[in-house]
Specification:
By secondary structure, the chain is α/β, with parallel strands linked by helices. It is built from eleven helices and ten strands.
Length: 260
C-alpha cells in the first residue's frame, strides 16, 4: 500500500516507518493519523515482521508536535473527536504484539513525544530534544502524555515536564529513563538496527509474551500481574521454540527459532 505522508519499507524481519512531512517538521496531521492507523494494521498482519522501527524524515525532527493549522480549528467537539482518534492509533502502536523502537532523530515534542513513549523502546540522537509543550498553547496533552509519561519516568518528573513545558535534551532524557540509549546522529539507525537485531535473534513468541507481561504490569496489581506472567510463561513452555532454545543451549549451538 502506498502512503502520502509516510514511507513504509520492509527488510524482514525488520520494518521501517519514516514520518515524511519534513516541510512541517513531521507534524502530526489528521491525514497522517489515518495513515498511521492503516500502516500499523499492515505491520501487525505481516508475519514476516518481528520488530518495527519508526523515525522522522530529515535531521531536524522525529515529530515536532501536532499540526498547528489544524489545532486552530479545534473546539470541544473536534478536540474530543481528534484526540480519541489519535489515542486509538497510539494504543494500537503500544499494544502491537511485536516490539517497536523509536529512532528519535531530532525534536520529539507534544504529539511526537506521545508517539515516542507509545513505542516499546527509544534510541535517541544526542541532538534530540523532547518535551510536552501543550500548556504554552493554553491546552493540555491529548494523545497520551499525561498517562504514559508518569508510567515511564515517574510521577514527579512527568508532572514537571507537563506543567513547565520544559524540553529535555538527550542526556537528561537518558538519565530519567525517557530513552534507552543515546548515540551520535550518524549512528542512530545503525544502533537502532543493532538493538532490533538483538531482539530478532530470540524466539518471536517469547518476545511477544514477554512484552505482553511487562505491559500488563503497568495496569494491574502485582498479584494479578504475577498470575498473568505465570500463564504466559506456561504458554511459552508449550512451544516448539522452547524445545529448540533449551536444546540449543545444552548442545552449545545457536538456536533456530520458528515462531511456533
Amino acid at each position: 500500500m502506498m502512503y502520502k505522508f509516510l514511507l513504509y519499507e520492509k527488510e524482514p524481519p525488520l520494518a521501517f516507518i519514516t514520518i515524511n512531512r519534513p516541510e512541517s517538521m513531521n507534524a502530526l496531521s489528521n491525514a497522517l493519523t489515518e495513515e498511521l492507523g492503516q500502516v500499523f494494521t499492515e505491520v501487525e498482519n505481516d508475519s514476516e515482521i518481528q520488530v518495527l522501527i519508526i523515525t522522522g524524515a530529515g535531521d531536524r525532527a522525529f515529530m515536532a508536535g501536532a499540526d498547528i493549522t489544524e489545532l486552530q480549528e479545534r473546539d470541544f467537539v473536534l478536540g474530543r473527536k481528534q484526540t480519541r482518534a489519535r489515542q486509538e492509533v497510539l494504543n494500537k502502536l503500544a499494544e502491537m504484539p511485536i516490539p517497536v523502537i523509536a529512532a528519535i532523530n531530532g525534536f520529539a515534542l507534544g504529539a511526537g513525544l506521545e508517539m515516542a513513549i507509545a513505542c516499546t523502546l527509544r534510541v535517541a540522537s544526542n541532538k534530540a530534544r523532547m518535551g510536552s509543550p501543550e500548556v504554552n498553547l493554553g491546552i493540555i496533552p491529548g494523545d497520551g502524555a499525561t498517562q504514559r509519561l508518569p508510567r515511564l519516568i515517574g510521577f514527579g518528573r512527568a508532572m514537571e515536564m507537563v506543567l513547565t513545558a520544559r524540553m529535555v535534551d538527550a542526556e537528561e532524557a537518558y538519565r530519567i529513563g525517557l530513552v534507552n540509549k543515546i548515540v551520535p546522529p550518524e549512528d542512530l539507525m545503525e544502533e537502532t538496527k543493532k538493538m532490533a537485531g538483538m531482539i530478532t535473534s530470540k524466539s518471536p513468541l517469547a518476545i511477544q509474551y514477554a512484552k505482553e507481561a511487562v505491559n500488563r504490569s503497568l495496569e494491574v496489581g502485582i498479584y494479578e500481574g504475577l498470575a498473568h506472567e505465570s500463564y504466559l510463561h506456561a504458554l511459552s513452555c508449550a512451544t516448539e521454540d522452547k524445545k529448540e532454545g533449551v536444546a540449543a543451549f545444552l548442545e552449545k549451538r545457536k538456536a533456530e527459532y520458528k515462531g511456533r
